[in-house]
Design brief:
Blueprint lengths: L1 H8 L15 H4 L11 E9 L5 E9 L7 H18 L15 E8 L5 E9 L10 E7 L4 H15 L3 H13 L8 E8 L3 E8 L11 H7 L2 H12 L3 E6 L2 H13 L9 E3 L16 E6 L3 H6 L6 E4 L4 E4 L4 H4 L2 H16 L6 H20 L6 E3 L5 E3 L1 H6 L4 H10 L3 H12 L9
Parallel strand pairs: 8-10, 8-11, 9-10
Antiparallel strand pairs: 1-2, 1-5, 3-4, 4-5, 6-7, 11-12, 13-14
InterPro entries: cDENN_dom, dDENN_dom, DENN_C, DENN_domain_containing_2, Tripartite_DENN, uDENN_dom
Protein name: DEN2D protein
GO molecular function: guanyl-nucleotide exchange factor activity
């Protein structure tokens, strides 16, 4: 398992799909609208080893990369070594089966330079007769857009039932198409033997920061009350462990929790599904947000752990807490957020997932606006255009004592510092008149 350690230091740091002002752009300079959809499509299969265990291995890779420079080659090899671990994080306890419900999940790998790649996975049973092992189709991309890639994986799965050979031209067509700007659609022509040429439309959501998120997944499993406890812990950058058996539940819920922090970004260890050989991640003294399969619960509880919030997504309850979660957020604002979350829960008008996303996101964005929305007027601009944030004056400007107490803690977090660093760099012209 030790080689897995280095690989997974790759799996650190950031949630996908949450913009980070300019900071996030280092990873997406090449991959903004109009750029490649994806870097690789790989198939990861389980190979039986001599000792009877199964080990995940890449059995197909598109495109094959030739002519890489030395540094690129090393990075590519690291990436390709890490992928199988995250496609089958549930270890070696596999046996061939005749039936298997396909599932979709995602993982995040962070490069040494802080740029991120997302693995979008569909685990399915190849068509055929008799007992066989599931395999994972994994698309590696720098783009955070879960809905869009789920749709691409649907197409891949449909083709897989016919033959691997039909997948290749579809992915080639996709690779040659420009990634659409928010709200725009790209149409991909695709030929399938027997059924002729199909046109597949892929539309990117208008609101980029929500395109990787399903808040409904969170609301279905946790009460608004618990969601606020989790949010409070995340805002103060604590250690959070989520438990569920299904990989799709873990990855959806963790992406949703990270997205509640918008316009701030979780800047620490972030592994939506922790591979079995990396379970000791939970011993880290630094903040982390990780997902662990329920079958490993005993092992996790046995680890020498610092204080952490442990959330059971199956039962919708908290298994272990620090104890002060109730008091972190100012009570008045907490109650307002509860009211608006309950409204979406009890609403008989059925909302689409986009509407739920917009409503939930709005409640949390409003919280930050009320708390720290006055930050811009406390940046002092010098003649040469560089800004300096006046932290003391900023905190003093908050009239409510309870709000000020919270903000004094929040300004010490990494996510607030990164946000302010960006703000100090990017002077908005109309504020220049101050």
């Amino acid at each position: 398992a030790t080689e897995g350690k280095e690989e997974a230091s790759a799996a650190e740091n950031n949630p996908s799909g949450v913009p980070q002002g300019k900071a996030g752009e280092r990873s997406s300079i090449l991959y903004s609208a109009g750029q490649f959809f994806f870097e690789y499509l790989v198939v990861v299969s389980l190979k039986k080893m001599s000792d009877g265990r199964y080990e995940p291995k890449i059995t197909y890779q598109f495109p094959k990369r030739e002519n890489l420079l030395k540094g690129q080659k090393e990075e590519e090899e690291r990436l390709l070594q890490a992928i199988p671990l995250f496609c089958f994080p549930d270890g070696n306890n596999w046996a061939p089966v005749t039936e298997f419900t396909s599932e979709t999940f995602s993982f995040v790998l962070t490069n040494v330079d802080g740029s991120r790649k997302i693995g979008y996975c569909r685990r399915l049973l190849p068509s055929g007769r008799g007992v066989r092992l599931p395999e994972v189709f994994c698309i590696i991309s720098c783009l955070g857009c879960f809905g869009l890639f789920s749709k691409i994986l649907d197409e891949v799965e449909k083709r897989r039932q016919i033959s691997m050979a039909v997948i290749y031209p579809f992915m080639q067509g996709l690779r040659e198409s420009p990634f659409p700007a928010p709200g725009k659609t790209v149409t991909i022509k695709s030929f399938i033997p027997e059924s002729g040429t199909e046109l597949i439309e892929l539309t990117r959501p208008v609101d980029a920061h929500l395109e990787h998120v399903e808040f409904q997944a969170l609301l279905q499993r946790l009460s608004p009350h618990l969601i606020l406890h989790i949010f409070a812990s995340a805002v103060l950058e604590r250690r959070l462990i989520f438990l569920a058996e299904e990989l799709s539940v873990l990855s959806q819920c963790i992406h949703a929790v990270a997205a509640l922090l918008y316009p701030f970004t979780w800047a620490h260890t972030y592994i939506p599904v922790v591979p079995e050989c990396l379970l000791d991640t939970v011993c880290c003294p630094t903040p982390f947000m990780v997902g662990i399969q329920m079958r490993h619960l005993e092992r996790v509880l046995d680890q020498p752990m610092e204080e952490a919030l442990i959330v059971d997504l199956c039962e919708g309850k908290i298994l272990r807490a620090v104890g002060d979660e109730e008091e972190i957020l100012p009570i008045k604002l907490q109650n307002e957020m509860l009211t608006s979350l309950n409204r979406h829960n009890n609403n008989n008008n059925v909302h689409t997932s986009e509407q739920v996303n917009a409503l939930v996101s709005e409640a949390f964005v409003q919280f930050f606006v009320r708390m720290v929305g006055h930050y811009a007027s406390h940046i002092k601009w010098s003649k040469n255009g560089s800004g300096t944030f006046q932290e003391r004056a900023f905190c003093k400007a908050i009239a409510s004592k309870t709000n000020r107490k919270f903000v004094k803690k929040f300004v010490k977090t990494n996510m607030f510092s990164l946000f302010i660093e960006e703000a100090e760099k990017s002077r908005i012209p109309h504020e220049g008149k101050r």
